Amino acid sequence: MQELQIVANNKALSKVLVILLGQGPLPARKLLSEYGATGYGQSLIKQAVTGGLIARRKAMPEGKGNHLVVNALTTKGRKIARMAKMVYGNAD
C-alpha cells in the first residue's frame, strides 16, 4: 500500500525510477540528463536513496576519470518502478 502512495503522490520520483528500470544502473549525470533536470533531479535521487528505492555504489569509470557512482534500483524500487510504468506509461 505504501508503494502505491509513492506512485500516486510523486510522479517526478516515479519518472526517475522508470528511467532506471528501462536503462539499468546509471551514473548520476546520465540519469539526470535522461530526467531533464539536474538540480531538482539530484534531490529526487537523494529522496530515493533515503527511502531505500535506489542504491548508490562506486564503479570503475568508463574511460578517463577517477570516481563513478552508479545508481541502481533496489528490490523495493523495482517494484515501485513497475507500478509507475503501468500507471504513467513512460512517466513523461
CATH top level is: Mainly Alpha
- Give the overall shape: globular
Poorly predicted regions = none
Class derived from helix and strand content: alpha+beta
By CATH, the superfamily comes out as Winged helix-like DNA-binding domain superfamily/Winged helix DNA-binding domain
Number of strands: 3
> Helix tally?
5
Structurally, how many domains make up the residues? 1
Q: Please state the second-level CATH architecture.
A: Orthogonal Bundle
What is the radius of gyration computed over CA atoms, rounded to a whole number of angstroms? 13 Å
CATH topology: Arc Repressor Mutant, subunit A
Main-sheet strand order equals 1-3-2
Strand content: 5-15%
Encode the helix/strand succession as letters: HHEHHEEH
Q: Largest sheet, if any?
A: 3 strands, antiparallel
Summarize the amount of helix as a percent range: 55-70%
What is the straight-line distance between the termini? 24 Å
Q: Please state the average pLDDT score.
A: 85
List the topology elements.
Layout lengths: L1 H8 L1 H13 L2 E2 H8 L2 H13 L3 E5 L10 E5 L1 H14 L4
Antiparallel strand pairs: 1-3, 2-3
Could you explain how this protein is built, in words?
By secondary structure, the chain is α+β, with helices and mostly antiparallel strands. It has a single domain (2-88), classed as Winged helix-like DNA-binding domain superfamily/Winged helix DNA-binding domain (Arc Repressor Mutant, subunit A), CATH 1.10.10.10. The protein is 61% helix and 13% strand. The protein is built from five helices and three strands, in the order ααβααββα. The chain has helices at residues 2-9, 11-23, 28-35, 38-50, 75-88, and strands at residues 26-27, 54-58, 69-73. Strands 1-3-2 form a three-stranded antiparallel beta sheet. The model has no long low-confidence stretch (mean pLDDT 85).
